Amino acid sequence: xxxxxxxxxxxxxxxxxxxxxxxxxxxxxxxxxxxxxxxxxxxxxxxxxxxxxxxxxxxxxxxxxxxxxxxxxxxxxxxxxxxxxxxxxxxxxxxxxxxxxxxxxxxxxxxxxxxxxxxxxxxxxxxxxxxxxxxxxxxxxxxxxxxxxxxxxxxxxxxxxxxxxxxxxxxxxxxxxxxxxxxxxxxxxxxxxxxxxxxxxxxxxxxxxxxxxxxxxxxxxxxxxxxxxxxxxxxxxxxxxxxxxxxxxxxxxxxxxxxxxxxxxxxxxxxxxxxxxxxxxxxxxxxxxxxxxxxxxxxxxxxxxxxxxxxxxxxxxxxxxxxxxxxxxxxxxxxxxxxxxxxxxxxxxxxxxxxxxxxxxxxxxxxxxxxxxxx
Length: 375
Known about the structure:
The protein is an alpha/beta fold. Helix content is 40%, strand content 13%. It has helices spanning 13-16, 58-68, 77-80, 88-98, 121-141, 157-169, 193-202, 233-237, 241-252, 255-258, 274-292, 303-310, 321-328, 347-353, 362-373, and strands at 2-7, 28-31, 37-41, 44-49, 103-107, 146-151, 174-176, 205-209, 264-267, 311-314, 332-333. The chain has an 8-stranded parallel beta sheet with strand order 1-5-6-7-8-9-10-11, with helices on both faces. The chain has a 3-stranded antiparallel beta sheet with strand order 2-3-4. Strand 7 (174-176), helix 7 (193-202) and strand 8 form a beta-alpha-beta unit. Helix 5 packs parallel to helix 6 and helix 6 (157-169) runs parallel beside helix 7. It starts with a strand and ends with a helix. The mean pLDDT is 95.
């Protein structure tokens, strides 16, 4: 089971699956006069849409450089987009070709717009709902082999409850949320307890994934966000910080004691940080408890034990998940990031070259994803 793949959205997905009254807020893919396709909202370009080539990250940079220099696009988006990038049936055929049984499917363009739409909560939730309705279609067409990931925010509790009802009815079991504060509140804030209970009651697992969401560092640390840059170097260096901070907050403030059925996934946010993080998590908790004379909250277990029992982390092959498992424990998941350029079209071979064997490491190759799916 692949814990991290992506499904491209069609040009009209958001409008097609949005309530008619909100369609003026729908995201869309539109072409400019030079043949470049853009993710757009309210007539403004948010991000350049490109067709990734697994293992060829430079192709994205070349596409952007052509656009910056005013040259016509080297390809037409619709002609270059393989069926396996966006059609559920074609993705199943690709799984068969590379020897995979099942895959978790995150959005593609859905990783690029959450922070930019955050000024309008109705627009934010309307576009999330549109994707979530498409997830229900993918789940039905996937025949148990495709596991689409919904897109949720904790900013509107009533809306969240409605979405979780719909997702549970459609058997969609994973949902991407931001690993940052919610309108100034930490994830462990008591106001969020009913929402964590709702995730558990509906059998939906929240997942942190790399995305353009609220930042945990001040904006001064980042360059201005031009629409033609896909990612900032600062964010790439510190991919691990948002989930590490969020999970520290949730663990030390007792959220897992209050909600023992809650699970979390961490995907495409690297994994090499986990051993040192767990060392610091226990060490800092012990030290500050002695220093301050009291813990942050009375916990029934060691902080690291909550992570090991309730959190599962995708680990790229180059991070040596076998060595990480030996150091830390069986919490890691196989992933390809297909079809993104930083991903791979040969996932099983990549892991085998790192000494990872399917029979010897069932947690890496399927059991840990099963745990997040509640199976």
